[in-house]
Amino acid sequence: MADDQLSRVFAALADPTRRGIVARLAVGDATVGELAEPYDVSVQAVSKHIRVLSDAGLVSQRRDAQRRPCHLEAEVFDLMTKWIERYRQQAQERYERLDAVLAEMREDEQPTRPRHPEQGAATS
Amino acid sequence: MTTTGRYQATIEADPNVPIVHMTRDFDATPAQVMRAHTDPELFARWVGPNRMETKIIDWDATTGGRWRYVASRDGEDYGFHGCFHEVGEDVIVQTFTFDGLPDDVALETLRFEDLGDGRTRLHAQSLVDSFEGRDQWLASGMETGVEEGYAKLDALLAEL
What we know:
The structure holds 2 protein chains of 2 kinds. Chain A has helices spanning 2-12, 16-27, 32-36, 43-55, 74-109, 117-123, and strands at 59-61, 70-72. By secondary structure, chain A is mostly helical. Residues 115-124 of chain A have low confidence and may be disordered. Chain B is α+β, with helices and mostly antiparallel strands. Chain B is globular. Chain B starts with 9 loop residues before the first strand and ends with a helix.
């Protein structure tokens, strides 16, 4: 269910408050109370956001510890980055093929090549 | 003399709307880049992944026209189709659907920005109807299908 997992990750990050929480956790672990401080929302609301983030596998909470600090699972972000990078590489390959087509088009449109010396000097 | 590899594609998955933004520069005028997108013969030469053959089935790159092509590899066909909603001087607005998911439609806007000196920046934007759709699209790699990287990913995700 790889797609479901990724969908949850992206959906979880679609919310600005949750992105803020993730940014805060990137600095270090924090409790729900600490995470609620900068926002004009209740601890319960932040708890709800934390639940969405942990369902997506982005955040974990140690059950045993008294403070139950939230921890960012950075591995998931690496996955997303890899995913997007793979897609980018496909686009890059596609556009390099387009580069080649465009280079041929330029040659078709300029049948007078090689250029006259003065033109070459002017454009180089 | 070759321009290959000189420019890198940038890609960004918008966190607020299910959009993928992409930009890429080319050593060609906007009219040339535009023509490479609207002339079916030229388009077929670059759109498909390496090792895949693209066959144009239907092509009317005018406002209100439609398109369809099939990408083939190892006897497997992947069909794509859509409509040209608007074909302007420096813009193409079109829909994009993978035949395998006929209900899913992406709205693509391609803008060809003139950078001068015979260079063009392509701004490509794809809007899909849900974050789930966008993310599956990003994840699947669409045209290339399942690859070994995907299998590794499955294994990693299973551990989460």
